[in-house]
Design a protein that fits this description.
mainly alpha
Length: 313
Amino acid sequence: MAIENEPAPTDDVSVFAISAFDITVRTMTVWLRRLLEFLVVVGITLGLVQIVGYVTFWIAYGSLNVNAPTANGEGFSIIIGIISNILSGSTITYLVPILFSIVALIISPIVTGAGIKLAFDDYGNPGNGSVGESFGTGIERSVKLIAINLVVGLIVGAFFAPIVIVMLLMMGVLMGSTDPYVIINELTKLTGPFLASMIIAVFGIYIWIRFMPAMAVGTVEDLGVIDSVKRAYKLTSGNFWHVLGSMILIGLAVAIIQAVISLMLVGFTDLVTAAVISDLISVIILSPINIVFQAVLYKDLYARSVATQETYW
């Protein structure tokens, strides 16, 4: 299934330099065209991880209400989650989510690399690439992909850690006293740190966006861990708003689909069960969309970098 504005097989990389809207359209096209393969490469694996997480939480806590797990293995979100869990309570209480996050930090990059490989091969050459070859690439480059995810996570997470800590302190104030004067006085003391941490977090968002193609670079190009991260930063140079716009559009597309799924589940079961089912559907069916997006975005940024070099020459 090809669409009108998707390039035919060609060696001319300029056809991949497109608008943020077209990146979203082509991402959805590749995802739908190879949906079954993406379910095998990405969805089923992450879905199994998610199910294991739910079962583990149920056995440990008898409920899914305690810091419900996620198979999303994006480095910085996992690292922030680990920091939040450690600071929120006893280590024993949050041991399961921390261990689950570590597992996701290992498995998700491998699956992401496999998905990027399949999307990269298919995009512009419909039908190209296979499940076996994609898995092979993910496994072959597993150490590098895990390291890239961790490096980016540590860098970006460092910018978000202060606001997480301040928010936890604020929650502690609200939960630690019923005296409004004490609460107002303590929260006032945290106003400065809160504003400062907000500014730091904004820089974190900027860095996160600049590193967006890092996993695709690690999958496609023969570079080391640090060089892959540097390469991602270089590819997004001068394209910050373009990448941000693309991320917003693809995020809206996924959010709309997710909302429709959630609305369909409302009324059929209780909220917790509906949330669990919705999360599982999201992980199994929708999570490949972001992975395909990374491949399409990488080709776009690569084409733009080639065009820039040709302009200079």
